Known about the structure:
The structure is a homodimer of 500-residue chains.
Chain A: H1 12-16, H2 23-36, E1 46-53, E2 57-60, H3 61-68, H4 74-78, E3 83-85, H5 93-107, E4 115-121, H6 132-136, E5 152-154, H7 159-172, E6 180-189, E7 201-210, E8 215-226, E9 232-233, E10 243-244, H8 246-274, E11 288-291, H9 296-313, H10 342-351, H11 353-360, H12 365-370, H13 377-388, H14 391-394, E12 398-405, E13 409-417, H15 426-434, H16 437-442, E14 445-446, H17 449-462, E15 482-487, E16 493-497
Parallel strand pairs in A: 2-14, 4-5, 4-6, 11-12
Antiparallel strand pairs in A: 1-7, 1-8, 2-3, 6-7, 8-13, 9-10, 12-13, 15-16
Helix pairs in contact in A: 8-9, 9-10, 9-11, 13-15
Family (chains A, B): Belongs to the thiolase-like superfamily. HMG-CoA synthase family.
Pathway (chains A, B): Metabolic intermediate biosynthesis; (R)-mevalonate biosynthesis; (R)-mevalonate from acetyl-CoA: step 2/3
Binding site for CoA (chains A, B): 195, 249, 297, 301
Amino acid sequence: MLRLVSRAARCWGARRGLARVHPAAMQQACLSSTAAGTGTWPKDVGILALEVYFPAQYVEQSELESYDGVEAGKYTRGLGQQQMGFCAAHEDINSLCLTVVQRLVERGRLSWDAIGRLEVGTETVIDKSKAVKTVLMELFRESGNTDVEGIDTTNACYGGTASLFNAASWVESSAWDGRYAVVVCGDIAVYATGNARPTGGAGAIAMLVGPNAPLVLERGLRGTHMEHAYDFYKPDLSSEYPVVDGPLSIQCYLRALDRCYAVYRRKAESQWQQAGIQRPFTLDDFKFIIFHTPFCKLVQKSVGRLLLNDFLAATNPDTASGLYKGLQPFRGMKLEDTYTSKEVEKAFQTASQEIFNQKTKPSLLLSSRNGNMYTPSMYGCLASLLAQCSAQDLAGSRIGAFSYGSGLAASMFSLRVSQDAAPGSPLDKLLSSLADLPARLDARKRVAPQDFADIMKRREETHHLANHTPHGSQADLFPGTWYLERVDDKYRRQYARKPM
Amino acid sequence: MLRLVSRAARCWGARRGLARVHPAAMQQACLSSTAAGTGTWPKDVGILALEVYFPAQYVEQSELESYDGVEAGKYTRGLGQQQMGFCAAHEDINSLCLTVVQRLVERGRLSWDAIGRLEVGTETVIDKSKAVKTVLMELFRESGNTDVEGIDTTNACYGGTASLFNAASWVESSAWDGRYAVVVCGDIAVYATGNARPTGGAGAIAMLVGPNAPLVLERGLRGTHMEHAYDFYKPDLSSEYPVVDGPLSIQCYLRALDRCYAVYRRKAESQWQQAGIQRPFTLDDFKFIIFHTPFCKLVQKSVGRLLLNDFLAATNPDTASGLYKGLQPFRGMKLEDTYTSKEVEKAFQTASQEIFNQKTKPSLLLSSRNGNMYTPSMYGCLASLLAQCSAQDLAGSRIGAFSYGSGLAASMFSLRVSQDAAPGSPLDKLLSSLADLPARLDARKRVAPQDFADIMKRREETHHLANHTPHGSQADLFPGTWYLERVDDKYRRQYARKPM
């Protein structure tokens, strides 16, 4: 069903010098230890490379405010959003993921043979049974490599993180055969007309996972919180739009943040204690903090929320000067009593303003200019941070990461950036590959709100039609983008790729 | 939204003596090695316990033949099916999984705190965003344990296997904190009236995964084949019914079987070579073989197919006597040319009849009497095998396992049964817990085809309705079964549990 099939290229490791051992040799080594029934984890498992795809068109949030007839600043200052990327009907979750995986492999000069696992996190479900993953296997066809584990994972915006954790565990397990894992997350976030619409977005991110990574998943440092909630869900399967209880969802997000941070801190402090260090973990221990970003303003509030956590956990905080100055009235509060308190929110947002500016603001480039990508959202924050920091700024730092998916599933974990910031180092290469993000955002086409609304209407009308050629022009795609060409009478989808 | 919440019970390990180290101690040990950045895999990771849920009502396939006006034997001899379990509208994927997970924890006297990972494999998607996993978190509410990783995985019938692999990797990884993983797979397999309807079924299986297991996932022995195919999929999201290309799906299944067996054998032979053993891997090296079972007849053909693989791979097979007697005309055939050959199928099915009877037939109890459960299908075969073999028969044996999900994703792997078959051993306890399977099947209520058809019609009519009380009576449920009590106007689902 796929028209264009990509060419296998040279091994990524060969060019980048990251795979210190050839995959085949690694496989052999792994099988040896496997045969013995014992084995150890490889070193520095994490993210080796990262590719971003976002649509080539967007709408200005300030223009949307005026088009929607809401007060000026409601979307821009109120939500913290500048622009929103969107797809016409000829882009679907399969085309988004095809594009970003091919981009990862082509730009990294990776061989399709060198991938032993590929999994997809998404909530843009267009088939209840068939995974996006198996559509992506078309990219592997010429290589003959079909021994590629992993399928799709789903829980709202959390799927990418679940896939990343699965991939890292696989690399550390006896099932690992020395090849890379690829984690893809992608979504098209669209809402019915109304309040929630400006919190949409679309995009996909692919990550290459393996040992000796410049971004290492810190071992043992992971706090998870899962519970049953109906804050945001998609029970009307014939519609692209979710059912959302906005206020409940914000409370769920913040409660999950509190719980995850508590578990994360406890694990970090326990590791320190074993090393003879007795002190509390605080925000100071993260050089940067990235968040799942439904809208940017919530992230700014979240930094304040973490400061509230630090403040309440501190045994004797100085409220006369410094960071906690003037916060004495909030001593003794209980976290669970403060989710709807505007007073608490304002006080801690003000107190954490500088922390936000330093540790988090640079990560919001994609979120503010492309909008909420759902599963890739937090990884878009990571890409934004890497695109705007120098290797020297990042080297050796710890990046805190909070991933949230409604329903709900959330984890806080951390990435340790490698110390080696030299030109040509894995870190330098990773940053270089992302440096063009701002220019790529600038290169998009601005679409007037009325045209955006028309396109959304056509998506709605043609969503899930069989025997159908979707609306959308090749001209509105970046070169190298896969798109949906045709859905036949048996709902089979046929894709083509716009030439590079 | 859940009415009844279960009671936390004593730790499973405490009663069964399987968890040789207390979870907290294990967590500590893990954190130590984590802090050091190195670690080794725990011993014998695999399945510690297994629970099965199937509906309390069924239809006779022979009666269905007559009701459908097809020739006698079409479903019974042609497909190899005897009976088919089915659910009224008050059972959905959430209720199935709630029931089986609670059964696993209650019967195992496991503490909810002792579970650190829970994930769900299913293709019975009733919400595109919210995972079944988060509904299951209601069971953990009283315990306060929310640090439970894992979400839902989807690729047709393969989701359970993906979850099992993920869970085992997690136990071997640095993310493991010493607690158990639980893998749940469940599905309601229903088809529109016509040819495919008698291949339905419904059920759920929960597995407890950890170290020191009586059923060990053999390390390094795993062959996977994934490709893009439209053999069976569910693109009409408003319907419970799939789109099926039956002949294509059988070809895809058999091709995947060939490919997975080839990869599995290569890995097994490579392990042997490293141990100085030079010989081909054959069916003889599996004492038992279990398969994903869309219908039992396909599994019988599949055993023949594996024999064809052995035969074509053999350098100089004896066709004058023994197993391969009379098969000389098939020498030199290519696997890919034989998928539709009735001649090849018949010859190798006949030749493999005894192998099928010994290695596979006992595993088809649930498949033949309850039908296709989709994701739990192969694990139902495992349960059937364990329910009908003695500990002595099983001890030390290798069980080959072939998991297939349309779309397509497939893996062959193997389980090594522990040597210890003594009364009170983990193996003995596991078998004892499953010994009542035949009696539980006998205890179901037989429903006439017309009533079955009426219930299916009502499922179809009320599928995905909001503000709705589903059809179905508590009387048609086994004690302890969760059921869907109400769907409110915002599609939020409320469950209750029939008393034990």
